[in-house]
């Protein structure tokens, strides 16, 4: 069997059987293709996914470990393990060659967060008069940043948010998360107001047929890409001179951290973030504890 046909079958399995998002599937694909590239560069013959050995994969991991972080290595090992698990499941192989390969130990990586002052500074830097090709995009950008922070959205959830998902009268929006799982997230009046302003501006755009129900659009009337959201945020961070690495996910982390610091229930935060397991949400308790340690070390007389 060829790599290409098995990868295609694996994609269908991940999408249809496991309900994974396109982003997750693309990451799996990227990791497998990195292995294929290594094989093409280092072997004179075609190494089949059916016959590849544990030793070959170990050598691949050793080679890439020189240039990649432990976290990236662990992700690649996990992706390959899932791929070969699928091949075993479908009886293409008897064993998984990645099973005995250990992932590098990872320390606890706390998410980067912004202070409330940081967020206020970024939002204040948005030029509400900014127009491109006759379309006011300043109000759109402000609604985007506010939605990321006030609702704790993933970037893919933001770009796929629909007008029909807005239930302002009830004070909620419907969010489609990983695995197409839906959840309802509260949305504040101030963010609702910003979205309503954008909706009025949006009426002036010639919207593409496939984006009629998509909330946030570019000036051409097409759905915004993830890359465009990253670009909007990058320019704002540079504008205010903030010396932090800020991505759309930073606003999501800040949303959860600020809720926890102000006494919100961890279970409620889990539901709003759309985490399948409470253990995923519990990482924010470590952030809160580190903040408590900082308070003790700064203010306690016997620190």
UniProtKB/TrEMBL annotation:
Main localization category: cytoplasm
Subcellular localization: Cytoplasm
UniProt superkingdom: Bacteria
An MF annotation (GO) of this entry: DNA binding
Matching InterPro entries: CB (IPR044068), DNA_brk_join_enz (IPR011010), Integrase-like_cat_sf (IPR013762), Integrase_catalytic (IPR002104), Integrase_recombinase_N (IPR010998), Integrase_SAM-like_N (IPR004107), Tyrosine_recombinase_XerC/XerD (IPR023009), Tyrosine_recombinase_XerCD (IPR050090)
Sorted UniProt keywords: Cell cycle, Cell division, Chromosome partition, Cytoplasm, DNA integration, DNA recombination, DNA-binding
Any one Pfam family match given in the protein's UniProt record, by short name: Phage_int_SAM_1
NCBIfam families: PRK00283.1, recomb_XerA_Arch
Name the UniProt record assigns to this protein: Tyrosine recombinase XerC
Gene designation: xerC
């Amino acid at each position: 069997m060829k790599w290409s046909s098995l990868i295609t079958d694996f994609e269908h399995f991940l999408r249809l059987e496991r309900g994974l998002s396109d982003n997750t599937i693309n990451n799996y694909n990227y990791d497998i293709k990195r292995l294929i590239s290594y094989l093409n560069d280092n072997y004179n013959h075609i190494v089949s996914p059916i016959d590849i050995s544990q030793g070959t994969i170990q050598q691949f991991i050793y080679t890439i470990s020189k240039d990649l972080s432990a976290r990236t290595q662990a992700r690649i090992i996990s992706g390959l393990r899932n791929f070969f698990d699928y091949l075993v499941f479908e009886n293409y192989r008897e064993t998984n060659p990645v099973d005995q390969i250990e992932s590098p130990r990872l320390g606890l990586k706390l998410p980067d967060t912004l202070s409330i002052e940081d967020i206020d500074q970024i939002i204040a830097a948005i030029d509400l008069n900014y127009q491109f090709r006759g379309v006011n995009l300043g109000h759109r950008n402000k609604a985007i940043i506010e939605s990321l922070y006030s609702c704790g959205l993933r970037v893919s959830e933001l770009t796929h948010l629909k007008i029909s998902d807005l239930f302002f009268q009830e004070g909620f929006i419907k969010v489609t998360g990983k695995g197409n799982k839906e959840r309802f997230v509260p949305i504040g009046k101030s963010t609702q107001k910003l979205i309503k302003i954008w909706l009025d501006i949006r009426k002036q755009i010639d919207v593409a047929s496939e984006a009629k129900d998509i909330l946030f659009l570019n000036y051409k009337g097409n759905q915004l890409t993830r890359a465009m959201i990253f670009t909007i945020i990058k320019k704002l961070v540079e504008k205010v001179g903030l010396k932090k690495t800020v991505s759309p996910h930073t606003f999501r982390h800040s949303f959860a951290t600020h809720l926890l610091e102000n006494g919100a229930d961890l279970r409620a935060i889990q539901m709003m973030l759309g985490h399948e397991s409470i253990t995923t949400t519990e990482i924010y308790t470590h952030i809160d504890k580190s903040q408590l340690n900082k308070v003790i070390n700064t203010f306690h007389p016997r620190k």
